[in-house]
Specification:
With 302 residues, this protein is mostly beta strands. The protein has four helices and 14 strands. The N terminus is likely disordered.
Length: 302
């Protein structure tokens, strides 16, 4: 069985870096820059929300091994803005989500998900407020392994979002295929990641609370990946962090997808047999911590 382990010094370093990332927003105010339509520029900004949270399972016994820490780090590089005065922005994004058995002996990492991609986005505005957003692109998602326990998927996606004064409704369609070791399979996108995602984000009029819900139907016994989130803004400024709670049911990382570290049989040639009919039971986790997401309406879009 493969487990990533880190020493105590690395624990402290990772914790310090995450604390800095969650407390200091990356996104610069757009008014600080003046770019013409289609002008090429590169600015480092936040992409998906960044958070550092810890919690326990709600559908299995609580122990040092089942309690964990989960964190997400996400940035983007703006490549072209308002191409040919079309309102379309192109950018490269990278997101990493890690589940860390912080409380277990030696604090191994349960699993990591690496998610780079290229994206195009256009938002239509009315009276200075967003009304419609289209976001599309190509993404790669993997656990970073290069051996028979490698899990990855590549897909194209398109998201449409409808904006209301305090509410955003969004739908995402993903089409692609996955790899289990060196075997191509449709099971990863169909059974564990999902082809369709429906989501909603609501912000109270005073901007003190944000709520988000996302549902991804799956073609296996877990029925769906479900995420419910709530955040309370620590201050009223746009870039201030939230106290944050997240509930997730289903498959969060590739280790949850299939019995990859358990009963799989590794053949002498390094190929791992793939049992399509035995998905790992889904997990239900509730976690608390801190989140930074200055562009609130994108939480539903992404």
């Amino acid at each position: 069985m493969y487990i990533c382990r880190v020493d105590a010094k690395t624990h402290r370093l990772i914790a310090a870096l995450l604390a800095v990332c969650c407390c200091v927003p990356l996104r610069a105010q757009e008014r600080d820059y003046a770019f013409g339509p289609g002008e090429r520029h590169i600015i480092l900004e936040m992409f998906r929300p960044m958070y550092f949270i810890s919690g326990i399972p709600v559908n299995s016994p609580v122990s040092k091994e089942s309690a964990d820490v989960k964190f997400q780090y996400s940035i983007k590089l703006n490549l072209f803005r308002d191409i040919a005065a079309s309102g379309v922005d192109l950018f490269f994004g990278y997101t990493q989500t890690s589940v860390w058995n912080f409380y277990a002996h030696s604090s191994p990492f349960y699993d990591n998900t690496y998610n780079p991609g290229f994206y195009a986005q256009k938002t239509w505005y009315r009276d200075g407020n967003p009304v419609h957003t289209l976001l599309g692109g190509l993404e790669h998602r993997s656990n970073g392994r290069s051996d028979a326990y490698s899990r990855s998927t590549n897909y194209g996606f398109a998201t449409y979002a409808r904006h209301f004064p305090d509410l955003v409704l969004a739908a995402t369609l993903r089409i692609g295929s996955g790899w289990y070791g060196d075997q191509r399979t449709w099971d990863l996108p169909l059974r564990y990641i999902g082809l369709l995602r429906l989501s909603a984000a609501y912000q109270t009029p005073d901007r003190s609370w944000e709520f988000q819900a996302g549902v991804t139907p799956l073609l296996n016994r877990s029925i769906a990946n479900v995420t419910l989130e709530a955040g309370w803004r620590l201050a009223r400024r746009k870039d201030n962090p939230f106290l944050f709670v997240q509930f997730h049911y289903g498959y969060e990382v590739f280790r949850d997808c299939v019995d990859e570290y358990g009963d799989s049989v590794l053949w002498p040639d390094g190929i791992v047999s793939y049992d399509h009919g035995v998905p790992t039971p889904p997990r239900a986790m509730i976690r608390f911590g801190i989140l930074v997401s200055p562009h609130s309406f994108l939480r539903a879009v992404l």
